[in-house]
Amino acid sequence: MADGMINLTIDGAPVSVPPGTLVIEAAKQAGVLVPHYCYHPGLPVAGVCRMCLVEIEKAPKLQIACATTVTEGMVVKTQTAPSKSARQSVLELLLINHPLDCPICDQAGECELQDFVFQEGRDGTRYGEYAKRFNPVEDFGPDVLYVPNRCILCTRCVRFMEDVAKEPVLNVSERGDRAFIGIHPEARLDHPWAGNVVDLCPVGSLLSKDFLHKARAWELDKTASICTGCSQGCNITLDTRDEVVVRVRPRPNLEVNRYFICDHGRMHYKWMNRGDRIEAPLIRRDGELKATDWDEALDRVAGILRGASGTAVALVSPGASSEALALAKRLLSGFSWTGAFQVVMGEEAPLPGVPNLALRAERAPNAKGAENLGYSRDYARALEAAKTAAVVLVLDDPDCAVEASGALIYLGSVLGADAPCRRADVILPIANVAEEEGTFTNCDGRDQRYYQAKPAPGMAQPAAWVLGELTAALGLAELTR
Ligand code: SF4
Ligand code: SF4
Ligand code: FES
User: Which residues contact 341 (CB under 8 A, 6 or more apart)?
Assistant: First the structure.
């Protein structure tokens, strides 16, 4: 044993892993995906599906890779005739009752039953004459439907609710081929993190009502992003179809959110598709806002800033990227400067089975980033200062109750009919989080990148681009923070 590591071979490939590693995890390091259903790295091991049977030299019979820990010199073979035949039998038994309704199943294209049957299942069935079991679809909770006919009884959902959410409302009811997932008669699947059962379900048995029939899996483009629902900074994937965000799913990050996201974050995407966007720069001409091009709009802002002196106030959103926040501060560096942000607060909702993971009370992704850059939480004071400032810059805060006697510049993506920012001298259209690339700092001080998932509408540009152009025009591009 070298350096406390365990050495073994998997399908002929040597690997070294820490003691206590499961064979199924060691296999991943050898580039081998052992087929599995009940195993999930974020849940306690159950060993109930028998899909991960492999041959281990010197063991008297096949072993389940998800519940066997590695030992020094172990030789694991996943592709021998006995192990493949055993897994084929498991698949054949699962398909006796599975409805084969892939053409209308939301999971088709990302279904582990489809994948493993395609990979190593039998060509046909030997149980064709048996009628399939039928149970009606059940409404489990605000966003979860249960389709029992598709359930393969892996118990991932039961273990998540029991061991991770610590709200044991699901169970395996009945026995044998009559078994199904039951819900406590007086309970709903309405825990703030309950939606994770949909992601955990390896087949189309637990479905999101929100995503139901919205898209086929192969129509989706996937982009790495960061949730904007609170300051936890959960890593997510934005699924887009035809440049519309249609689904948010967790992206594993063991340091931040492990494999999970909360339901608030899961649903916090519809605003990214808003149609009532500001699509062109607007400048005030003869008392009215008129659409113009970027050159004229940027010239107008540069002229305002060159001609003003004294105090400036930046009222910014804690949902803006750190890049935009840093550039906004730099743009006003020639003034006596005040910058502030306001955060919407909500109820904190921890996920009890995972330390330091919660829907945070602060419902903004980058309050920490704004604070690190010198923006204050004293928004009321900044609003007061804005009344007499020479220049007020509002960044991505459409509900800002600003009153300004000096010049008012608004960078935003939307503008309500009665919004105070309608009185701005210049309005610059910016991209939202799904339309740009940037950095957020989460509540623990972790800087995390997010990426562009869809194009910005019309002439809108990332705020960091707009502010970068302005700082360059004013000769401030080389300033350090
Ligand atoms: S509903 Fe899905 S996750 Fe739950 S036991 Fe059935 S197949 Fe597994
Ligand atoms: S905990 Fe916060 S960051 Fe994570 S998914 Fe929920 S809202 Fe998003
Ligand atoms: S994945 Fe190993 S028994 Fe289910």
Answer: 315, 316, 317, 318, 364, 367, 370, 375, 376, 377, 379, 397
Confidence of residue 240 (pLDDT cuts 50, 70, 90): very high
CB 409, CB 391: distance < 8 Å: yes
User: How does residue 480 score in pLDDT terms, banded at 50, 70 and 90?
Assistant: very low
CATH class of the domain comprising 130-273: alpha beta
- Fold classification of 6-79 (topology level): Ubiquitin-like (UB roll) (3.10.20)
Ligand nearest to the Cα of 38, by number: 3
Q: What is the pLDDT of residues 406-444, one digit of tens each?
A: 999 999 999 998 999 999 999 999 999 999 999 999 999
In the chain, ranges of CATH 3.30.70.20 domains: 130-273
Closest listed ligand to the CA of 153: 1
Alpha-carbon distance of 56 to 75, in angstroms, equals 6
Question: Could you tell me the two tokens for 37?
Answer: 């259903």
What's residue 239's pLDDT? 98
Question: Across 198-243, where does the E strand assignment appear?
Answer: 206-208, 221-226, 235-241
CB of 156 closer than 6 angstroms to any ligand 3 atom: no
Q: Where are the alpha helices (DSSP H) in 183-284?
A: 196-200, 263-267
Could you give the ipTM of this predicted complex?
Answer: 0.96
Q: How far apart are CA 132 and CA 120, in angstroms?
A: 22
Using a 6 Å CB cutoff, which residues line ligand 1? 151-157, 181, 200-201, 203, 205-206
Residue percentage of the chain with pLDDT more than 90: 94
Domain formed by 282-473, architecture: 3-Layer(aba) Sandwich (3.40)
Where in the chain do CATH 3.10.20.740 domains reside? 6-79
Which ranges in the chain are annotated with CATH 3.40.50.740?
282-473
